[in-house]
Write a structure and sequence with these properties.
With about 525 residues, this protein is α/β, with parallel strands linked by helices. It is about 40% helix and about 15% strand. The protein is built from 16 helices and twelve strands.
């Protein structure tokens, strides 16, 4: 029965995507997400409101059904009548339906401070959508029963499906806001953000935060024990992030506005316990020659070069870590080596014992690039200590002078035909390797072509390169082959096959001859 339910939800997701595609000609494909996700939010918020309203009526609290406090206390947005989905659907075929949708979204945002800056502003009216196409899209969204199964995050699944499809549809150079879910899951399983402050300096649509909360819930933690901080540069994506969090009842501080993390840091004094990020790869000209030359985030290090922001992101992240903070973030592989200021910064990071693990990911995991990228893990406290993670008490060993290198390029499973993702068990196994290496009472051993624990001394001898292949043992499967013996074996096999083929032909000729036919093969 459960399998059938999943199939139906998938059909809804696909139907929504097909409906969005029907907007072609009226709306650019890059605008689909703002059209569809804004409407999905409106439907979901309305459904939650109606459920709460019915509960108040059932409890004999009719006089409270128009008081927003009784909704907010249950993490439900209060919706005036003209903002409710039922009203929107009554007006769906009217000429001014776009204006009514804009008015509804504006009113909801105005009445709910947590949504400030999150919802589209006068968006549908400005687009000039074809009325019949918009009405058809509303009908499709109307068929989604967001409250059918409280244990299923239907709207969340639609969100993730759409964000991934948008990333594919928009192609290279676009869709940077979407990080594949299996990678985010891996980061969460490795750094384990159970409680404290979680920060993402390039938060995109908020996927890191959503998966962090899912991690906490799946491991029986309490999401109220975490605080979320983030920043996003692009205004439309900033709105998506706020909407994405709000739709799931996650409160977060994404700053007062969309802003450049380097030029206008929205969280200057923040110290985070966990940092999860997927900043733009190889960002060029991120500052002018005279800008940000003196910045507290670079203190103790060389100033990151203007030609590439990779090390600016690393230092921004390192500067935000609390005394026991852990960060997991993605960068292009080029950041693992190289000279100039990057070499000096990388060397200092190793010497300061901040680098805990370097993990190479497979190619074709991202929708916007086919390159292999690196997961970096920084840890401010790699010393011997006792820690409680969830319900588990752990003894961490002294590993200040060590770095774990992992190569995951041979791991993964097909996804969306040409893409690769990590399966659930693969994520568990990878995280287990990392945690076994960290802990004193766990068994860890180096595995050729997979993982290797390396001393800081050896990294220094390798000129502070963090390229895993310089340390992880490679198995040369050709080195023990006796080619002369192998060639003789191949020749013998070939002769045997030719002999068998000749015998088979002769047998076939004999059969035809017995039947009275003369056949030449």
């Amino acid at each position: 029965m459960a399998k059938k339910a999943i199939k139906n939800e998938k059909s809804i997701e696909e139907t929504l995507w097909d409906s969005a595609n029907k907007l072609r000609g009226s709306v650019e494909p890059s605008e689909y997400k703002h059209v569809v996700l804004g409407l999905i939010f409106l439907k979901f918020a309305s459904d939650k409101f109606e459920v709460k309203r019915a509960e108040l009526l059932a409890d004999g609290k009719e006089k409270f059904i128009e008081m927003k406090e009784f909704y907010n206390m249950s993490n439900v947005f209060f919706l005036p009548e003209l903002t409710r989905w039922s009203y929107i659907m009554q007006q769906a075929k009217q000429d001014d339906i776009a204006l009514k949708i804009d008015t509804a979204l504006h009113t909801i945002e105005k009445n709910n401070p947590s949504l400030k800056g999150a919802l589209p502003d006068n968006y549908f009216s400005r687009l000039g959508l074809d009325k019949s196409k918009l009405a058809a899209l509303l009908d499709t969204i109307n068929n989604i029963d967001t409250q059918k199964d409280p244990t299923q995050d239907i709207v969340g699944r639609v969100y993730e499906y759409f964000l991934s499809k948008f990333a594919i549809a928009e192609g290279k150079g676009k869709g940077e806001f979407y990080t594949p879910k299996s990678i985010v899951n891996l980061i969460a399983e490795m750094i384990e953000p159970y409680k404290g402050i979680i920060y993402d300096p390039a938060c995109g649509s908020g996927g890191m935060f959503v998966q962090s909360i899912k991690f906490i819930e799946s491991h029986h933690g309490n999401k109220k024990e975490v605080s979320i901080y983030g920043q996003e540069y692009t205004n439309t994506t900033y709105k998506l992030a706020k909407m994405n969090l709000a739709i799931r009842g996650i409160s977060g501080n994404l700053g007062e506005k969309a802003a450049d993390t380097f030029a206008d840091d929205q969280h200057k004094d923040l110290k985070a316990d966990y940092i999860m990020a997927n900043p733009p790869f190889n960002q060029k000209d991120w500052r002018a020659d005279t800008e940000l030359v003196v910045d507290p985030r670079w203190r103790g290090y060389d100033v990151p070069p203007t030609s590439n922001a990779n090390y600016a992101w690393i230092l921004n992240i390192a500067s935000k870590l609390s005394e026991n903070g852990v960060a997991g973030f993605l960068l292009a592989n080029g950041a693992l080596s190289g000279g100039g200021e990057e070499y000096k910064i990388r060397r200092k990071l190793v010497e300061n014992n901040l680098v805990e693990a370097i993990v190479i990911l497979p190619r074709n995991m991202f929708y916007t690039t086919d390159i292999s990228v690196t997961l970096w893990i920084l840890n401010k406290n790699k010393g011997k200590q006792e820690k409680t993670i969830g319900d588990e008490k752990r003894t961490y060993r002294e590993r200040t002078e060590e770095v774990l290198f992992m190569d995951l390029r041979q791991i993964g499973e097909p996804f969306e035909k040409k893409f690769i993702q990590f399966g659930p068990q693969q994520i568990v196994d990878i995280a287990k390797t990392y945690h076994n290496w960290q802990q004193a009472d766990r068994e860890y051993q180096d595995v050729p072509e997979y993982c290797c624990s390396v001393t800081k001394e050896l990294i220094a001898k390798k000129d502070f390169s963090l390229v895993p292949s310089k340390y992880i043992e490679f198995v040369n499967r050709d080195e023990n082959i006796d080619f002369e013996t192998k060639m003789k074996s191949l020749q013998t096999d070939m002769q045997r096959l030719l002999k068998e083929e000749a015998e088979s032909k002769q047998q076939l000729l004999n059969v035809f001859k017995e039947l009275g036919f003369e056949i030449k093969l």
